[in-house]
Amino acid sequence: MPNRKLLTVAAAAFLALAGTVTFAPAASAHDTSRDVYGCLYQGQFRCGYGGVTNSHTRVYSCDTAGDGYGFRTEYRLRSGSSFVDDANGSSSGCSSVTPGSSANPVTQFRACQKQNAWWCSEWATA
Fold first, then answer.
1. What DSSP letter does each residue of 53-119 carry, written as one string?
2. How many CA atoms lie within 13 A of 49 on its CB side?
3. What b/e string do you get for 59-91 counting C-beta neighbours within 10 Å, with b at 16 or more?
4. Residues 12-41: tens digit of each pLDDT
5. How far is CA 126 from CA 26, 37, 43, in A?
6. Which terminal Cβ of the chain has fewer Cβ within 10 Å, N or C?
7. What is the pLDDT of residues 75-109, one digit of tens each?
């Protein structure tokens, strides 16, 4: 009889663990971002960052360097492409747009800072 109780307890523990793993939310698993470095003193600081959230539908851009240069995140949808600039510079708060949908999600993006020309991270999969 002790073996039967042990098997019952082990089976209950397995089912509880399987239920936890099976029903865990996965929405944040798709959130991703990229940084751009090379600003301010000897180009050693982060200029800003941009990324994609909300299941490939929202794109944001955040300027973190008070250097007077603009910052943007460029993105590609399944049908088309565009960008979002951080409208307030390095002041608190980022800018964002929600151009994607489940039928037309954001597929790629990159973060860019404007100096003499746009200085961008590599294209990343959203």
1. ETTTTEEEEEE---SS--EEEEEEETTEEEEEE-TTTTSSS-EEE----SSS-EEEEEEEEESSSEE
2. 9
3. bbbbbbbebebbbbbbbebeeeeebbbbeebbe
4. 444 444 443 333 334 445 799 999 988 876
5. 15, 20, 27
6. N
7. 999 999 999 999 998 999 999 999 999 999 999 99
